[in-house]
Every structure is written in C-alpha cells, then in structure tokens.
Amino acid sequence: MSPAALVRTVLGDVLPEDLGVCDAHDHLFFASPLLPGQELCDAAAARAELAAFRARGGGSVVQWTPYGLGRRVADLPAVSRDTGVHVVAATGLHQAAHYAPRLLEEVRGRLADVFVSELTTGIGPTGVRAGLVKVAGGFHALDAHARRTMAAAAEAHHATGAPIAVHLELGTGALDVLDLLCGEAGVPPHRVILGHLNRSPDLVVQREAAASGAYLAFDGPSRAHHGTDWRMPDALRALADAGFGDRLLLGGDTTTAAARSVDGGPGMPYLLRRVRPRLELALGKELVDRILTENAGRAFAVPWRS
C-alpha cells in the first residue's frame, strides 16, 4: 500500500512520522545584503550546528531559505547525511529588500515555473528537490511584490501540493496573507504555515488564524526589540485550550552566524535545551511532544504521487 503523504527531504522522501523532533523553521545557510558580514555560509559550521541539535534529541530541520539567498543546496545532502538529521529545503522568494533589483527582474515573469521546477525536478544541477515554498509579507500589509510572489506560490501549490510557509514581518499581517492565499488563490488553509506569530502576541489574531486551519509557527527566541518570549507559553496555552493544539509549530530561526550555538549564540539546540522544557511546564510534555513531531509531520507532508 502506498503512503498517503511524504515529507520531501534533501536525501529523498520520508514518512511524516520519521521526521522525529522537528525544528520547523530554521536556517543552515542564509545570506542577505540586509545582514552584511553575518552570512551563514560555512558548511563545517552548519554540520556542527546540526550535530549539536541532534545531540539534544533533534531529528529534522526545515530550512526556510528561499531562492537567491545563499541556500547552498549542494551542501545540504552531505550535512544531513553526516549528522543523521533530516533536512527539508525551500524554494520561494523573500521580501524584495533582500534582493538586487536585477535578480528580481530575471525571475519576475516566471516565478511559478521556478517554484514548480525546484519542487519537482530539483534546485539547479543538484537534483535536490525543495519540500516547501517560502514567501514573505510586509509589516501589517502586502505590497505588490508580496502579492505577486504569493500568487506564484499558490500556483506552485496547486501543481504540486507543497505547503507554503510565510514570513510575517514582526508577526503581523496574518489575516491579510490568509485572505490572499486561501481566499483569492484557493490554497487550503492547512497547507499554509504562518511564521513568527510570537513576534506579535495578538491572541485574537492568532486564534482567528488558527481557526482558519492554518499552522502557526512560533519560531526564534526573542530579539532585543521583541521581548516576547515570556508571552509565548501563555499564547500557546490559550490556543491549545481553544482546541488548536494541532495547529502549532516550533522553530529556532537562526539567521546570522553570531546566533549559532557553535559561535556562542542560542542556535538550533536552544529550541530543545530551553524552549522545550519551559513550554512543557505550561502545556504539558505530551502536547509539546506532539507539536514537535506529529504537527510538523502533517504540516510539511505532500500528497504521495506515483
């Protein structure tokens, strides 16, 4: 009997239950002109970070680094194989500010084709297939770039069944994103993953987004200007009590070299070293285990096709 769904990793498709404990939003490689000198571009450091995550019980990492931002896709299979951690790669496009105008012009008219190709044929000459489409909104709004990119992501979803992961700028704009992707573009809400909900602790918006059927990712420890870590357990508890415990995801979102644990930052292990036990006190171990395993497996699975 064929499986109903599989998760597409850089080493091939696996069953959702084989992901183990999943960091649902992170970066092994990432480079943006907005973060000069903080590029994640060292394969040895990426391998060490994954090994440290594995040592804490981690089983899989979903890399949300999209097209044109230093994904280093050719390095991902070896890093995954060497550490025994499943890695899921992304296609998609970030906010326009992360790209040179020339690059955007090169892909603007063929975004959907690029996304579908990277989901089905592979990313460049590597043959590694992406497992999700990553796009981004703006601060409390969706500009023309976001709308164009999300429309292309919706096309790619309809062609492949792949989930769409959305960077919400400072955690805002969730309902606008759902209106566009699920209302205008017809993407089923359970195929949408909304990132950074912890950065805007609006319980009303979070509950409405969860009620739509979308997944809500709480990802990354607080930055100095966010200060929302202390609110996250209460937000997750409120959502779980409202019946949305199966809509929640957790991630680390390491985007700079200084944030890596091997360079003195919290890094990927922080999710399991500090966030997990703190949430277990608020939510109970059983629910946190399900968030890190079963929820992630469902969120990133794609329909099996012969």
Give the name of the CATH architecture: Alpha-Beta Barrel
Name of the CATH first level: Alpha Beta
Global Rg: 17 Å
Order of helices and strands: EEEHEHEEHHEHEHEHEHEHHE
- The number of distinct helices, counting runs of at least 4 residues, comes to 10
Task: Describe the protein.
Belongs to the metallo-dependent hydrolases superfamily. Phosphotriesterase family. This is Phosphotriesterase. It holds the Pfam family PTE. By secondary structure, the chain is α/β, with parallel strands linked by helices. It has one domain (5-303): TIM Barrel, CATH 3.20.20. It has helices at residues 43-55, 76-83, 101-107, 111-120, 144-160, 174-184, 203-212, 232-241, 269-283, 285-299, and strands at 5-9, 12-14, 22-26, 60-63, 86-88, 90-92, 132-136, 164-167, 192-195, 215-219, 248-251, 301-303.
List descriptors.
6-stranded parallel β-sheet, 10 helices, 306 residues, globular, alpha/beta, single chain, TIM Barrel
Q: How would you summarize the topology of this molecule?
A:
Layout: E1 5-9, E2 12-14, E3 22-26, H1 43-55, E4 60-63, H2 76-83, E5 86-88, E6 90-92, H3 101-107, H4 111-120, E7 132-136, H5 144-160, E8 164-167, H6 174-184, E9 192-195, H7 203-212, E10 215-219, H8 232-241, E11 248-251, H9 269-283, H10 285-299, E12 301-303
Parallel strand pairs: 3-4, 4-5, 6-7, 7-8, 8-9, 9-10, 10-11
Antiparallel strand pairs: 1-2, 1-12
Binding site for Zn(2+) 1: 25, 27, 134, 253
Modified residues (N6-carboxylysine): 134
Protein name: Phosphotriesterase
